[in-house]
Amino acid sequence: MPKFKPQHSRLLFIDKKIREGKYPNCSSLAIEWEVSSKTIQRDIEYIRDMLDAPLAYSAKNRGYYYTENSFTLPAFDLNDSDLFAIFIADKLLQQYKNTPVYPRLQSVFARIEDSLPKKVSFHPAHMDDKCSFVTSPQTSINPQVWENIFTGLRESKSLTISHKKPTSAEPLTRTIDPYHITSSQGEWYVIGFCHSRNAIRTFAISRINHAEVHEGNFTVPDDFNFKKVSNEHFGVHWGQDTYKVRIWFSPGIAPYITERHFHPCQNIEKNRDGSIIFSLSTSHLLEVKRWVLSWGDQAKVLEPEKLVNDIREELCTACRQYHQK
User: Fold this and answer.
1) Taking the model in full, what pTM does it have?
2) Domain limits at 88?
3) pLDDT tens profile 60-77
4) Strands, E assignment, 171-305
5) Is residue 75 part of a domain?
6) Mean pLDDT within 109-117
């Protein structure tokens, strides 16, 4: 056996030997595992005192045994940093609350907590009143739609969906080949080839009220790579064109922009007065437009001209909404 082995592997080895009912002792275990008897003795004490194992020593058989056969070791060994990471992940599950996957994830984390030894210096529940997360507003998703989309995604099967755009009075029927799903700002999207449009399209899953799985399979094109093409997106929407976007941000807002990563290919130029020029390339302008508008008069689009005109028109319309009669 190799000389170096993690402690948890050694604990599993000791547990296995004890369960065989052969009354192993520190010396026999140390010889077989190729460590010192003192190391095994510390492991025995840890199993007994920290994991509350019903472990006893038989003088007659000169070895250890369990007084209760129902005892099992925790499935894994975690330190305080691991436990805190689990706590953070558990809190982050809130962003999936309105999806059918949420109760399953909750169940997984509950089993993790149940498997922890009773005597640990830190327990995730101890942090409930000391840490929280403010998540984006979440959309609601039809559980059956969710399951069918995942079936199509997992098994490469086409889907017939009934999807309603925000601006449409009635839902439209589409046949799609689901390539990828992604979550953004409280919404889940399925991205795939739309047979009606003969192009890749993005559909908000919360706006799909019916999804039917086809029998036949499709093949994802070799040139489709979501991670690669997402470098050309600002958000989840796709387009056929490529736009070079440049945005001026005021000195007061510049720190908020420079300290965050908004786009994989973003570039920031700093001006002497403290303002910045933020630039990126994207294939769709909708979410860039919404983002710029969210900064009010602290942001100004320099290019492309199409985005400049779109934002000017949007602001003029908004001003008319507030015009005093």
Assistant:
1) 0.60
2) 80-127
3) 999 999 998 888 776 555
4) 172-184, 187-194, 199-204, 208-217, 243-249, 267-270, 276-282, 299-303
5) no
6) 67
